[in-house]
Amino acid sequence: MSLELDTKAYWKDCDGKDYDDEFIKEEIEEYVAKGGRIYVGTDSMLLAHKCNFAAVIAFHSRDLNIARYYYKRFKTGSVEYKELQVKILEEVALAIQTAQFVLKLCPEADVELHIDIGTKKRNATARFFKTIQGWVLGTGFALKVKPNSWASSLADGHTKGKK
Length: 163
Known about the structure:
By secondary structure, the protein is α/β, with parallel strands linked by helices. It has a 5-stranded mixed beta sheet with strand order 5-4-3-6-7. Strands 1-2 form a two-stranded antiparallel sheet. The longest helix has 22 residues, at 84-105. The protein has helices at 21-33, 84-105, 129-138, 150-160, and strands at residues 11-12, 18-19, 38-46, 51-61, 66-76, 111-114, 142-144.
């Protein structure tokens, strides 16, 4: 099962206000023209009978005095996501899809993916690191993982609540 980045659904800001793709395009183009890097993060939350996913497009630059983001949330009833590998790979696929969406809107964008996996043995996701690293780097995107994947933490907040 693979989630699709629904182009009909609206992006939301941290207050839950809706924005269409044209607005997001303008935001990305303006930010990139100033030299900003786009950060894409995803995360998921497995619940009893469903799995919630969220994708984030974040703008953050101390030099440009910018810190904002937009997100989309996805809910699925698939039981396949109870297997950690399936859930993590879906998060990565959604991140890549979101990054490709950003590049479609603004081909000159510098995009970095923030994936919610660890590299230390105590992290259950560490065993997937090399596979995910190869996949992401093979698509041409820069990669950050725990503890440096802050954009995935933004997404995390939108996998739980109703905002």
